[in-house]
TrEMBL record:
The lineage of its organism: Bacteria, Pseudomonadati, Acidobacteriota, Terriglobia, Terriglobales. One of its GO terms (molecular function) is DNA binding. Residues 356-483 form the ATP-dependent DNA ligase family profile domain. This is DNA ligase (ATP). Keywords: ATP-binding, DNA damage, DNA recombination, DNA repair, DNA-binding, DNA-directed DNA polymerase, Exonuclease, Hydrolase, Ligase, Manganese, Metal-binding, Multifunctional enzyme, Nuclease, Nucleotide-binding, Nucleotidyltransferase, Transferase. Residues 569-596 are annotated as: Disordered. Its EC number is 6.5.1.1. PANTHER family: BIFUNCTIONAL NON-HOMOLOGOUS END JOINING PROTEIN LIGD (PTHR42705:SF2). InterPro entries: DNA_ligase_ATP-dep_C, DNA_ligase_ATP-dep_cent, LigD_ligase_dom, LigD_PE_domain, LigD_pol_dom, NA-bd_OB-fold, NHEJ_ligase_prk, NHEJ_LigD. It comes from Alloacidobacterium dinghuense. It comes from the Bacteria. Pfam families: DNA_ligase_A_C, DNA_ligase_A_M, LigD_N, LigD_Prim-Pol.
Length: 900
């Protein structure tokens, strides 16, 4: 029969086919983004472009021009000139060639909304056959850019054409004259601006000289309100509030919560300067929520709550009366109660006196945010919209009201901060104008202080030296990892009256032992210990090198803050400026939690962060989450895109733990699922899979202390891409013997032309791991590894056994090849272990084995060993392309048979 001719595809049709996914993700009646021309273009000079993209999260879009389109990857951290950095690059849809020249703004609400900068551009040269590189997942090329030059490699994780929608690759700098060392400044930091205009990301977003604007969105009132940022003047003039009804019409009704944990500010040394930040004076008062509820027309009840949820309505009747005059059916307002001196400054000491003397008339309530209005949750609106509505409400009360609006200044953060300090203010609060309201601490609200001032727990006191009734000094502390850390003393700032009142409270809390974790002999001298229940506001000059406050002065007691929430306040790194809502992910609600025990890691809210998961190392749930967050770039390549089994220890090591592999109820955000056909071929099961930093933090939220991936990927479940030999020694086996065993495994594999890598397990064993092309099914791989194990057992029967026989194991190494079976798993590199000490499985160089078992690597001391990550001992793991050849399979079988 005559053979059919293959259908001829024109170059323009090929371009259309490649752009089909790109076009399917966009409505070109709503956006002016290019749909893409049908011209294939020349291959004589291939363009590349890197666009810095401040969307939901700041990332870098790496694009290579090929076959008439831009092949595209999203690189979260951007490219690195250091060959040891393997940057995760998530492949996304092909883009039109015209897209590479865009620098400007894509409006919010549209796909990819945010600010786009042309960070680098130039040409690229494939090294070898580019089509083959794209197909096999190993593309080598040379860049000729303004910032990036030299040899680079893109390696697809998994080793073959992935069937996932967004396969993961690694972007790696190859060794050449352009490479840089790990200590040199990153190119993304040294050259952050546009190669086209020289502007930074903030300037591009602010000037709006090039906007891919929706053509229809202006007709949609709700969409416009959600996207547009209200432009405030400096609050020296009145700004009209937006129409309240228009805003609320598009928001579903919701019953007003009884209490909403407050949005808290992170501390910085220098405030942000960008146009997308507004700045308010930092007030020295009590954080207060006003709840206004209309019981019947014209009659409103008001409830007043502290930041911890205590009902203080009875302590502020005048403020409650003033709030009842607000023209609302219901409202929940966030603000601060203060006492203003004649110059307009706030004084915490005067505030305390006002409460002690029950002089409510001296109090002023300064409102700075609106959370709920007339039965609608408005926390998801942009901050500047919420403030505009709030200002309109308060404006109707009149100038003599004790309810005041917290005015602000836009941009010029450093100048505003300097002026505030000159005026004697405590500092300023900087807020991202586009941010949602999010319970917990986040980088969308920042505080910069003119003086060092924070809360401390009182753990003890000394009596006055003259024997008088009162307080000589207070012993101060703060909580860290569940322990009360000693922070020094304060012996000034008391009045005669406050000394007597404080001594009375302290006497009622006396106990025989100190609650501090560690104390020097000097700290113990003359001390009287008390239960750590009271919280003091303290002003001080600085921190000393041994973590003590210097020149501390008592300002008063904080009745509104629980002692267990007190931490040492340290400035964080400034967030990178952007006019987009790239920070808005910090505001995303995760789950309803109590304000008394939450923390935010990345974008994830962590409940019970101070829960101790291990009594030996005192690792807390928060430390585990921070470890996962920081190690993500190194851990994810070993688990992303694979089915996982996890070990959950909700109460920590030593308490009941359990394995979980299926997605069930209560799985945290960022944790996905993959359908795995069961062994009988009767249906599928939903397995856990994690491919993001957010997902790792989600595992910490679930109390996951171990991560065990399959040896195959989600897109090739039946063909593993690695072999694992688990060397599990009897307790009597010495480390030296175990190391010799690992080398013997390596030598046998080397004879079979296979390169192997070694890692510790976080316990007493070692894993020898062999990356392979995923071309063989599980049964074949299992048989091969069994034969290798048989060879070793036959050659050294006194050292190895391959059957788990307890009586025969004494003094020998169990060589477990069953890790190479469908559904079997092994501990991931960089995963913690659910054992005392919470140590970590670490990739090693073979030469390191002679140094002894690397049990010093744990979650608790991560800061002491994370510098190790700069020199990856498995640098060649993802670059090693080797097949499990027929020759090797046959040779292993023959050797095993002849060995007996």
């Amino acid at each position: 029969m005559a053979r059919k001719k293959a259908k001829q595809v024109s170059p323009s049709d090929a371009v259309d086919e490649q752009l089909a996914r790109y076009r399917a993700m966009r409505d070109f009646s709503m956006t002016a983004e290019p749909s893409g021309s049908r011209q294939k273009g020349s291959e004589s000079e291939l363009p590349f472009v890197i666009q810095k993209h401040a969307a939901t999260r700041l990332h870098y879009d790496f694009r290579l021009g090929w076959q008439g389109v831009l092949k595209s990857w999203a690189v979260a951290k951007g490219p690195s000139y250091y060959p040891g950095d393997k940057r995760l690059a998530v492949q996304v849809e092909d883009h039109p060639m015209e897209y590479g020249g865009f620098e400007g703004t894509i409006p919010k609400g549209q796909y990819g909304g945010g600010t786009v900068m042309v960070w680098d551009q130039g040409t690229w040269e494939p090294q070898g056959d580019a089509d083959e590189g794209f197909r096999t997942g190993r593309l080598k090329f040379v860049l000729h850019g303004q910032k990036l030059k030299g040899k680079w490699t893109l390696v697809r994780m998994g080793g073959r054409a992935a069937r996932e929608a967004k396969p993961n690759w690694l972007l790696i700098k190859e060794h050449d004259e352009y490479e840089r060392g790990p200590e040199e400044q990153a190119i993304t930091e040294s050259k952050p601006d546009s190669v086209v205009t020289g502007r930074d990301i903030e300037a591009i977003g602010t000037q709006e000289d090039h906007v891919w604007q929706s053509k229809e969105s202006k007709k949609r009132n709700l969409s416009r309100l959600a996207q547009k940022r209200l432009r405030f003047r400096e609050r020296t003039t009145q700004v009209d509030a937006p129409d309240r009804s228009n805003v609320l019409n598009g928001i579903p009704e919701e019953k007003m919560p009884e209490f909403i944990p407050p949005h808290l500010a992170a501390q910085v040394s220098v405030p942000p300067d960008g146009e997308d930040w507004i700045h308010e004076l930092k007030l020295d008062g009590y954080r207060i929520q006003l709840h206004v509820v209309e019981e019947e027309p014209g009659k409103r009840n008001v409830f007043i709550y502290t930041r911890g949820g205590l009902d203080w309505t009875h302590r502020m009747p005048d403020i409650a009366k003033a709030a009842a005059e607000l023209p609302v059916k219901s409202a929940l307002i966030d603000g601060e109660v203060v006492v203003l001196d004649p110059s307009g400054k706030t004084s915490f000491a005067d505030l305390q006196a006002a409460f002690q003397e029950e002089k409510d008339a001296h109090l002023t309530y300064v409102a700075f945010d609106l959370l709920h209005l007339d039965g609608h949750n408005v926390r998801d609106l942009a901050l500047d919209q919420r403030k505009a509505i709030l200002e309109g409400l308060l404006g109707e009360l009149g100038d003599d009201s004790i309810l005041r609006f917290s005015a602000h200044i836009r941009a010029r953060g450093e100048e505003t901060f300097r002026n505030a300090c000159k005026l004697g203010a405590e500092g300023i609060i900087s807020k991202l104008a586009s941010s949602k309201y999010s319970s917990g601490r986040s980088k969308t609200w920042l505080k910069a202080k003119c003086v060092h001032q924070q809360e401390f727990v009182i753990g003890g006191f000394t009596p006055p030296g003259d024997g008088a009734d009162g307080v000589g000094s207070l012993l101060l502390g703060y909580y860290q990892d569940g322990k009360l850390m000693y922070a020094g003393r304060t012996g000034t700032g008391f009045t005669h009256a406050s000394q007597k009142a404080l001594r009375k409270q302290l006497d009622e809390l006396q106990q025989s032992k100190a609650s501090f974790a560690e104390l020097t002999a000097d700290a113990r001298k003359d001390a009287v210990w008390v239960k750590p229940d009271l919280v003091a506001e303290v002003q001080f000059a600085t921190w000393t090198g041994d973590h003590r406050v210097r020149q501390a002065s008592f300002q008063g007691l904080r009745e509104d803050k629980p002692a267990m929430e007190i931490r040492r306040e340290e400035p964080i790194a400034m967030p990178k400026p952007s006019r987009t809502r790239k920070e808005s992910s910090h505001n995303a609600p995760v789950e309803k939690t109590s304000s008394k025990a939450t923390s935010v890691i990345g974008d994830m809210r962590l409940t019970h962060p101070e829960k101790i998961l291990d009594d030996e190392s005192n690792v807390t749930k928060k430390q585990l989450a921070e470890y996962y967050f920081e190690i993500a770039d190194h851990l994810l390549p070993f688990i992303a895109g694979r089915p996982l089994s996890i070990v959950r220890c909700p109460e920590g090591c030593g308490k009941p733990c359990f394995f979980q592999k299926h997605v069930g109820q209560g799985v945290a955000r960022g944790i996905d699922s993959v359908l795995v056909p069961n062994k009988k071929g009767e249906g599928s099961e939903e397995y856990i899979t994690v491919s993001t930093q957010e997902g790792l933090v989600g595992l910490a939220q679930m109390g996951v202390l171990e991560i065990h991936p399959w040896g195959s990927r989600n897109d090739s479940l039946e063909t593993p891409d690695q072999l694992i030999f688990d060397l599990d020694p009897d307790p009597a086996v010495e480390w030296k013997t175990l190391v010799e065993g690992a080398h013997e495994v390596r030598d046998v594999l080397k004879e079979l032309k296979l390169v192997s890598f070694v890692k510790s397990t976080g316990g007493k064993g070692l894993h020898v791991v062999v990356p392979i092309e995923p071309k063989h099914e599980w049964a074949d791989v299992k048989e091969f590894t069994r034969n290798v194990a048989r060879i070793l057992e036959a050659n050294h029967p006194d050292r190895y056994l391959i059957k788990m026989t307890k009586s025969a194991r004494k003094g020998r190494i169990f060589l477990d090849y069953l890790r190479n079976d469908r559904g079997s798993t092994a501990i991931a590199s960089y995963s913690p272990r659910a054992r005392k000490g919470v140590r970590v499985a670490i990739p090693l160089q073979w030469e390191e084995l002679h140094k002894g078992n690397p049990i010093e690597y744990g979650v608790a001391n991560f800061n002491t060993w994370k510098k190790r990550l700069k020199n990856d001992p498995w640098e060649d793991f993802w670059l090693t392309k080797q097949a499990l050849s027929e020759r090797a399979v046959t040779a292993a079988a023959n050797l095993a048979e002849s060995a007996g």
